């Protein structure tokens, strides 16, 4: 049985959707904090187990009879590493055969600007130190973030203004990453230790603007901005300062080339080429 944590989130549901296509629902368990939010999964035959990252005993109960665990990163950035340690410790105590983790692919973590990503690499260390068979899925920045980054009024203003310089990202769709993870975890043999899940081509925001122009028939142009001024403008618009800092961190890492690595791993796990920027944007913007 495969247990997917964070099962009611977007990524968790994508993984479970694919696992249900591959094999019987009886081989899939979902960890959720809120039984109500997981009701539809139970209706599909998934074994819903209630537990929280901060509650070790609930995690051990949830892992009873489980062979493989996919640990989807928690959203509490301050407590993320401690919570992940709880999950790994519970897995070891429950006799789980292996743990997989959803991390981040950055070219050089030692020089990253977005310090919030540090928790992912600290989690990698504790997973490696667990003594359990493990797999790390290092995920590139979701293509799904683009509507939020470029703004809901992008077709009205005709401008994408971000402090990403000429940096490029090998964007990939979150649902395809979930599908790839499910394929790896459902294999008869334990998957290899590290995968880099990226799109097939690294694209700049100039490329994003060009694709949005092509899809909409309206001219969209990318204008690089200065990070400090960009953050100040976000705060002036009412965006919480922590969110502004996080966004600038993402953009700075993009500008510094941290997200431009292209790997064949996603395509290999999918058994096909991942969505292109054109097809992904068409899906995300409903065009």
TrEMBL record:
Q: Specify the NmrA-like domain's residue ranges.
A: 2-234
Instruction: Say which domain of life the source belongs to.
Output: Bacteria
The membrane spanning regions, by residue number, are none
Which of UniProt's keywords are assigned here? Answer: Oxidoreductase
Q: What is this protein called?
A: NAD(P)-dependent oxidoreductase
**Which PANTHER family has this protein been placed in?**
NMRA-LIKE DOMAIN-CONTAINING PROTEIN, QUINONE OXIDOREDUCTASE 2
Its EC top class is oxidoreductase
- A GO molecular function held by the record: NAD(P)H dehydrogenase (quinone) activity
E.C. designation(s): 1.6.5.2
């Amino acid at each position: 049985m495969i247990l997917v944590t964070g099962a009611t989130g977007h990524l968790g549901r994508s993984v479970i959707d694919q696992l249900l296509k591959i094999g019987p629902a009886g081989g899939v368990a979902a960890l959720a904090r809120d039984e109500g939010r997981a009701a539809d999964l139970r209706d599909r035959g998934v074994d819903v187990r209630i537990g929280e990252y901060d509650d070790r005993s609930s995690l051990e109960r949830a892992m009873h009879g489980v062979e493989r665990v996919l640990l989807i990163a928690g959203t509490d950035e301050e407590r993320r590493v401690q919570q992940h340690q709880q999950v790994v410790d519970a897995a070891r105590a429950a006799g789980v055969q292996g743990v997989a983790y959803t991390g981040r692919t950055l070219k050089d973590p030692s020089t990253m600007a977005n310090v919030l990503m540090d928790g992912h690499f600290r989690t990698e260390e504790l997973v490696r130190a667990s003594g359990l068979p493990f797999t790390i899925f290092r995920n590139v920045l979701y293509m799904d973030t683009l509507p939020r980054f470029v703004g809901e009024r992008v077709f009205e203003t005709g401008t994408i203004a971000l402090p990403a310089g000429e940096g490029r990202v090998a964007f990939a769709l979150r649902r395809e990453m979930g599908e790839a993870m499910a394929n790896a975890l459902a294999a008869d043999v334990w998957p290899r230790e590290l995968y880099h899940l990226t799109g097939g081509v690294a694209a700049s925001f100039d490329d994003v603007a060009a694709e949005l122009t092509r899809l909409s028939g309206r001219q969209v142009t990318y204008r690089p901005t200065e990070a400090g001024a960009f953050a100040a403008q976000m705060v002036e618009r009412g965006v919480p300062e922590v969110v502004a800092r996080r966004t600038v961190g993402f953009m700075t890492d993009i500008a510094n080339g941290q997200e431009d690595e292209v790997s064949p791993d996603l395509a290999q796990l999918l058994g096909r080429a991942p969505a292109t920027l054109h097809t992904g944007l068409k899906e995300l913007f409903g065009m």
